[in-house]
Amino acid sequence: MMIGTSLRVFATISVLVAACLCCMSARTDAEETDSSGSYLQASPEDIQWWRDLAFGMFIHWDPSSLMGVEISWEREDRPGTGGRGGTPVEVYDNLYRSFYPAQFDAKQWADIAKAAGMKYMVFTSKHHDGFCMFHTALTDYKISNTPFKRDIVREVADACREAGLKFGFYYSQPDWHHPDYLTDNHERYIEYLHGQLRELCTDYGRIDIIFFDGLGGQSKSWDAPRLFKMIRELQPHVIINNRAGIPGDYDTPEQRIGGFQNDRPWETCMTIGTQWAWKVHDNVKSRKECIQTLVNVVGGDGNLLFNVGPMPTGLIEPRQETRLREMGEWLEKYGESIYAVRGGPFKPGAWGASTHKGNTIYVHVLDWRDMPDRLPVIDKRIVASELLTGGAVKVVQDAKGIAVDVPTEHRQDIDTIVKLTLDGPASEIAPCIVPSGSLAAHRPARASSSREGDQYSADQAFDDDVGTYWCAAGGSKQAWLEVDLGRNCTFNRVRVREGGTPWVEKIVKFEVQYEKRGRWHTVLEGGKIGEDGRYEKEFEPVTARKVRLNVTEAKRAPRIFEFQVFAG
Questions:
Q1: Are 54 and 197 within one domain?
Q2: 111/260 same-domain check
Q3: Contacts of 213 (CB under 8 A, 6+ apart)
């Protein structure tokens, strides 16, 4: 048995039996009263308030913080995952016995979130390790059985509401601690799961967001339709993500900026460091990375759920707090271009991104080296322009597009924001890609291998979209990516974008090659792509039709967001 006594087991079984009877009754009622399935999705009005918030705080925290390891994944036994962590179960599962975060203050967390410009918070009520950060009647493996005893979820929920923040909870359906999970008694576990969701949706006031985390195809069904119906009966305005086995209300790209998508809501969840839980001496993202990540996410028409991992004391690490406050200072000045806007019409690229609201477009230039001579043609007339970040801007609109000229001294290192006022709604403009000028853009491509799924094909590295990428097959430590330029072209510069953080850095050594008379010739050799996931270099001009990125050594399967080739 896992931690507990016979008395606890009998008590838990009794509660589960009651939960089963209750859920069976609910299932019958559902079949009799609602066959439309309308409970599977939130209303457009509720989706809209969530989208307008744009920026939220994610918090991963439980007794695993005592070890400074990744939450859950350090546990040795991880049923259903095919892997094992480094800490024995008897050690990991007993961490809670000494968990006493004496400096925890939910109001302080809420104050930091507000100072960061965040509008909502999502907190881990239970992660894969099964430990409950709320007072549940269905298990003894919970925060109220630690020396600390206090109900963390309740305090966080109350603090968020007091601070004017929307509140949601993360809940992992997998539970590596529960004795019935993925066994012949898994149906009994399902009732346990439903029982806990009933508790969370009944005992903690209004819940605005639920973030499920079902680990994809690694788990059995959660009986999601019945679960969703129960949740929406208890919390009619809640927003639910797509990780419960059914689509839910929004998509959740993880640890990456999602590609431009305005036909379905989405939210990037990403860490401020390199892992979800706190660890000593973690690499914290720079101010520039943090702000540009937010801009690119919102420019892609998504929300950003930015994660911090509190220390065992209950405090958010000072380095993380400082970075969040810096984001808030920036948003205090330029938040009009982030909150209650939509992404586009100019899709994000290496140059930057854009957002719009009403008759206004906000052009966010993140890297002037990649800014084209002209933005694409739009079917609205620009009637006014200004540099929101201060200084002079000259905007010329003609039949070839929109030329934006900002003097060098007025260009910002992080984000230069040009505000364009139109003669009509910007929402009527069809989203468009800003061409990079790469000779390889949208040309036929192939690779040594690709991860399963069209979204990882070689073409994704040549689409001028920094939100999509090619990924080699799992386990690949060597790979190549090739493009056919369509004719012999002379070029002298390449750009490779692997990603923006050490977390996604995989390439150790690579070559840039061109084909001549059936043989490949190396024009450049490199090591790691770079601290910002970007490599760019000029060389003596060569003429060829086919160009290849040859990865000769990688830590893990390489992934390339863009491989670009330029003339001049």
A1: yes
A2: yes
A3: 127, 128, 170, 171, 172, 173, 174, 243
On the CB side of 251, how many CA atoms lie within 13 Å of its CA?
16
Residue 529 has φ and ψ, to the nearest 5°, of: -60, -35
Q: In the prediction, which pLDDT does 227 show?
A: 97
> 361-388: b or e for each residue (b if 16 or more CB lie within 10 Å)?
bbbbbbbeebbbebbbebebeeeebebb
End-to-end CA distance of the chain: 68
Distance separating alpha carbons of residues 508 and 336, to the nearest angstrom: 41
47 domain-assigned: yes
Residue 487 neighbours by CB under 8 Å, 6+ apart = 545
Q: What are phi and psi of 492, to 5 degrees?
A: -145, 15
pLDDT exceeds 70 at position 202: yes
pLDDT digits (tens, 9 = 90+) for 363-421: 999 999 889 999 999 999 999 999 999 999 999 999 999 999 999 999 999 999 999 99
Dist. CA 550–CA 513, nearest whole Å: 7
> Looking at residues 283-302, what average pLDDT do you find?
97
Q: Specify the pairing of strand 416-422 against strand 382-387.
A: antiparallel
In a domain, 434, yes or no: no
CATH of the domain at 154: 3.20.20.80
**3-state class of 247 per DSSP?**
coil
453 belongs to a structural domain = yes
DSSP structural state of residue 430: P
Query: Is the pLDDT score of 99 beyond 50?
Result: yes
**Secondary structure class of 422 (helix, strand, coil):** strand
Distances (CA, A) of 278 to 71, 83, 159, 273: 9, 22, 22, 8
C-alpha atoms less than 13 angstroms from C-alpha of 530 in its C-beta half-sphere: 13
Q: Which helix (H) or strand (E) holds 203?
A: helix 186-203
- Phi, psi at 559, each rounded to 5°: -135, 130
Q: Which domain holds residue 387?
A: 342-428
pLDDT, position 67: 97
Q: Which of 124, 136, 131 is nearest to 168 (CA)?
A: 124
Give the residue from 337, 358, 378 where a domain finishes.
337
Domain boundary among 428, 454, 479: 428
